[in-house]
Amino acid sequence: MKSRAPLCIATLTAAVWLAGCASGVKLNDQVPVESRTPTPVTDAGTAGGQGAASSGATPQSQVASVDLTGKSTGADVPAGLARLVYFDFDSFVVKDEYRPVLEGNARLLVASKQRHMVAEGHTDERGSREYNLALGQKRAEAVVRALELLGAGASQLEAVSFGEERPAMQGSTEEAWSRNRRVELKDR
Question: What is the CATH T-level fold of the domain 26-187, as seen in this structure?
Answer without folding.
Answer: 60s Ribosomal Protein L30; Chain: A; (3.30.1330)
